[in-house]
UniProtKB/TrEMBL annotation:
Positions of the UniProt region annotated as Disordered: 276-295
Natural source organism: Photobacterium alginatilyticum
Pfam families named in the record: DUF72 (PF01904)
Name of protein: DUF72 domain-containing protein
Lineage: Bacteria, Pseudomonadati, Pseudomonadota, Gammaproteobacteria, Vibrionales
Amino acid sequence: MPVLSARPLRLGLAMWSHSHWQQSLYGTGCKTGERLARYAETFDTVEGNTTFYATPAITTVRKWHDATPDDFRFTFKLPSAITHQNQLMHCDQLLADFLTVMSPLEEKIGLWKIQLPAHFGPQALPALEKFLQKLPARFTCGVEVRHPAFFAKGQEETALNRLLVDNKANRIIMDSRPVFAALPTSEAVIDAHQKKPRVPVHAIATAENPMIRFIGHPDDPSNDAFFANWLKRLPAWLENGKQPYLFIHTPDNNHAPELAVRLYAQLQQQMSGSLRLPAHKLPPQAEANPQFDLL
């Protein structure tokens, strides 16, 4: 497990490779194969969505391991064949094969992400429980649900939360309020409105590593009002000894690094009297560029 006193909260983005970040996060001259290492100089975790679509080669997994420091943490999605096609059933061999390929990174996995489809509802909870109980006890996982019943504050949601608590699984929290507050005047926002789930924000910690996916507004200052509640919730979790994961998205992710640093600075200021958070700063070339307003 990560040392909580060293990394009380982990901050990251939805990916580590994005061409728009060449002049900000990476810097001039950074080759594509060096992007993960450069990313890990600023952020200490990342969402690994590529594994949802295809299992990488084990040689690639080893490169990811070697490109990151010891205290870096990935949060890889389980393959869609497991979560969507098989809906967590009859997939023992699929899971075993996937974990074998990913084994070189095992000590750098923060959470294994189980993202479930919108039709995975209350009737499927026994399959989720059985699946969680099959996972090695040393694994930390997060579960993202999208079925409306799991956001209705009724018996179905209570049953889900109890199941997660009993199995020490984290409920992944999607905060898409900011992006849905943006007018659909750009292709990126229109695409986000079509693809991102519009579900209520239920900020509950069912285990020790609550994970927030904050889908930001394209106008940086417009995010502040939506982040205000997290400035209360995150310190409360930290004071209770939990280690949250905070991932910042934007509709096209072009300025996600800048937004992440901006919001993190607010959290640092909020907690300055109770807990010293480690710095997350962009490289000097980004801070010197007037295009990138961090504060």
